[in-house]
Structures are given as C-alpha cells and as structure tokens.
Design a protein that fits this description.
Radius of gyration: 16 Å
Distance between the termini: 49 Å
Structural class: alpha+beta
Strand content: 5-15%
Oligomer: single chain
C-alpha cells in the first residue's frame, strides 16, 4: 500500500514516469554526486569536503567538485551547501 501512497504524493506530471539517471544528474538544486556515488554522512555539506575546490581567479571564483568532470561553464558548478555524497573526505585544516 505504501507504493500507492508514494505514487499519489508525486506531482501529477511525474506520476507513472521513471526518471532516468541523466535527468537525475541534471536536476537543479540536487547534488549530482549523490546520484552517482550515493548519500554521504548526515549533516555534512560539500564545503567541508576535500574534493570541493574553487577555480577561476579572475573577477570571480567558481566552486567545483573534483569528482565531477570540470568544464569551462556553469554545467559543472557545485554548491557549497549541497549535502555530502558517499565520497566525502573531511577537509584538512
């Protein structure tokens, strides 16, 4: 019965649709590393991870995750506030 309850709790446009992995990776506001590697430690954010880096150095720095392919555009930007993924490694001071 819980499957049916879960089904009806979805927005109408998502009912009966399976979300592909590529769609999951491209959804705004979600950490794509969680889709790829799984969820990490509860309460940790990407800003605390050693894989979280800043690139740029011109007028602005851009935050990235070195576990993802880094492009020269916004497609690989990574939010510091994303929940950590399973590959989380505590940043050394």
């Amino acid at each position: 019965m819980s499957n049916l309850a879960d089904f009806w709790s979805l927005p109408t446009n998502e009912q009966g649709q399976e979300i592909s992995r590529i769609e999951q990776l491209s959804q705004k506001g979600r950490n794509p590393c969680i889709v790829q590697f799984g969820a990490g430690p509860w309460g940790k954010e990407c800003r605390e991870c050693s894989h979280f880096i800043r690139v740029g150095g011109h007028a602005r720095d851009y935050t990235k995750c070195d576990l993802r392919k880094i492009t020269n555009g916004p497609g690989s930007d990574h939010k510091a506030s994303f929940p950590a993924c399973a590959r989380f490694e505590k940043r050394k001071p």
